[in-house]
Amino acid sequence: MTDHTDTATANGSPGAPLWLLAELTYRCPLQCSYCSNPLDFAAVKQELTTDEWIDVLTQARAMGAVQLGFSGGEPLVRKDLETLVAEARRLGFYTNLITSALGLDEARIHALRDAGLDHIQISLQASDPDVAAAVAGSAKAHAKKLAMARAVKEAGYPMVLNVVLHRHNIDQLDTIIALCDDLGADAVELANCQLYGWAHLNRAGLLPSQAQLEAAEATTNRWRQRLAERDRDMRLLFVVPDYYADRPKACMGGWGSIFMTVAPDGAVLPCHSARMLPMDFPNAREHPLQEIWYDSAAFNRYRGDDWMQEPCRSCDERHKDVGGCRCQAYMLTGDPAATDPVCDLSPDHHLIEAARREAADDSRSAQALTLRNARESQVFCRT
Ligand code: SF4
Ligand code: SF4
């Protein structure tokens, strides 16, 4: 392994990873049709053991990572979650549990708090139980989520709710925000569905229309005003979908720049979607994280700007948005080094416009979307 202090990428040495996303498992009791997990997740069988995860956490912390998200799948499926949280606390991480709340109960909330968990983020599907059931593939999940959101708040955690918005729930935004207010949320992430994994498979049935999106933004602004008048401190974060932007976001702050994801089987990725790309990612079972982060071909592949093609290569904005998302470029054009077609300077931007038209013509109900489950995943494991 090279000493990273002497290792220069084409545009200078990368800094340390600040964020570690630990995807503990792809197992999950829900089946959300917008899930960003890989389509072939069922092929991943050998999850890292408790000791292997502790080794990953220890290495990442030694490299300088300070923020740790436990995610999945559903991280509560892992019986060793409390052990991992305690170890993360001992190492000095700020820890966040990203959960559906399925698998949570009062005893576990207290055990996680005793282990030192800093933060819990619960996802809600909708305010209407029928829509929530259709999108999550579970009739019981909605009531459980509401009960656990209340319990998390009572246990003294700052309460962040995450609502993935799509065409089947975005028109209910007024009642969704009212529900979050009633639950006592401190912050609500209204995150328009990012179209990766299962969400990309269901893209035409999930993408809202421009009119829906504008109405949702207006509703959010009305609520911000109302909350301010009541002196109610509930932050509303509205994340616009890429497909209605004219510039891409700087994906993960830049490839291999600050985020490192470790997948359930130990694959180390620059983001949770990247394993869809046609390239090999190193595994934490076989290589130290430091070597992977600084020296691997995968992590150096899209660092800096030498890899960029036109129009990004000569664009003044290339250091601001890093040419967008490599996964989105690959999914839409077949070329992971292409300019993200979200950008209206991209020669492939017409693909985004075509996706919007395709979505406008799609009349599927929420019930008709493909659910994310092991049976459906098997189809992609064979291809
Ligand atoms: S999005 Fe839904 S199905 Fe996917 S991991 Fe989260 S809760 Fe499970
Ligand atoms: S051409 Fe590339 S660098 Fe320029 S704005 Fe578009 S995505 Fe960003």
From TrEMBL:
Its cofactor is [4Fe-4S] cluster. [4Fe-4S] cluster binds at residues 28, 32, 35. Pfam families: Radical_SAM, SPASM. Its EC number is 1.21.98.4. GO terms for biological process: molybdopterin cofactor biosynthetic process; pyrroloquinoline quinone biosynthetic process. Keywords: 4Fe-4S, Iron, Iron-sulfur, Metal-binding, Oxidoreductase, PQQ biosynthesis, S-adenosyl-L-methionine. The keyword Oxidoreductase applies. Residues 14-233 form the Radical SAM core domain. Pathway: Cofactor biosynthesis; pyrroloquinoline quinone biosynthesis. Catalyzes the cross-linking of a glutamate residue and a tyrosine residue in the PqqA protein as part of the biosynthesis of pyrroloquinoline quinone (PQQ). Interacts with PqqD. The interaction is necessary for activity of PqqE. This is PqqA peptide cyclase.
